[in-house]
Amino acid sequence: NLVQTIHFPHKRHDNADLRLSAYGGVAETLDTDVDFEQDGGTALTLKDIGWDNESFQPPIYYGLRLSYWFDRAPSWGLGLDFTHAKMIADTDQIVTVNGTRAGMSVAGRERLGETFSNLQLSHGHNLLTLNALYRFFPADRFETYIGLGIGAAIPHVETEINGIGTSEYQLAGPAAQGLLGVNVGLIKHLSAFIEYKLSYADIDADLQGGSSLHVEP
């Protein structure tokens, strides 16, 4: 999941080591393959599905982070990061499909809507990660930092297949992210930062009606 993020101010506690941050911006998702299985002989791979992000449509894209920088090693820190993005597939798009549907071989291009009447993670392609952080020039007003994190994907899975709908949060698989940012001190206890984040998730979702899907955004 390719994410470019513009962040808003965050507050510092008096010791300047513990920080609470809030951010928003634009999230972009690269095209991905979706593997879909259903009882009755259906096992399909739908290739290069495009996803809309609708970052500024309710519920908007946002994130929260609690970070701590160590006193004895001020360049190093840890951050607990929650990111709420969205992935919405246009079911009118034409995709390449391979596999079997109800036991019959399928190979070619067709509307995504031939398989999914609805396919989205729109009340949250949620990621919860613990990040190791490193900052350059920690005593300066301008801090450049990098980070790597691992955690879990907790999407709100919304699908409809042959009239059978799924709409629920699921603990769907592992997630990872890397980030690069610049933090600028404004006034005491208040700063702003801009950040570029690259995220990955391996999502296995169970659907109603004996179906499942796998996607790696």
Summarize the structure.
With 217 residues, the chain is mainly beta. It has strands spanning 2-7, 10-12, 18-27, 32-38, 42-49, 51-52, 62-69, 76-89, 94-101, 104-111, 118-136, 142-153, 156-161, 164-169, 173-187, 190-201, 203-207, 211-215.
Question: Would you kindly provide a written description of the structure presented here, covering whatever features stand out?
Answer:
The chain is mainly β and 217 residues long. The protein has strands spanning 2-7, 10-12, 18-27, 32-38, 42-49, 51-52, 62-69, 76-89, 94-101, 104-111, 118-136, 142-153, 156-161, 164-169, 173-187, 190-201, 203-207, 211-215. The strands form two sheets. Strands 1, 2, 3, 6, 7, 8, 11, 12, 13, 14, 15 and 16 form a twelve-stranded antiparallel β-sheet that branches.
| Unreliable residue runs | 1-15
Mean pLDDT: 88
Q: Helical stretch count? A: 0
Radius of gyration, Cα only, in angstroms? 20 Å
- Biggest β-sheet description: 12 strands, antiparallel
Number of strands: 18
The span between the termini is 5 Å
**Shape assignment:** elongated
Helix/strand/pairing category: mainly beta
Q: Work out the strand percent.
A: over 45%
User: What's the helix-strand series?
Assistant: EEEEEEEEEEEEEEEEEE
- The helix content, as a percent range, equals under 10%
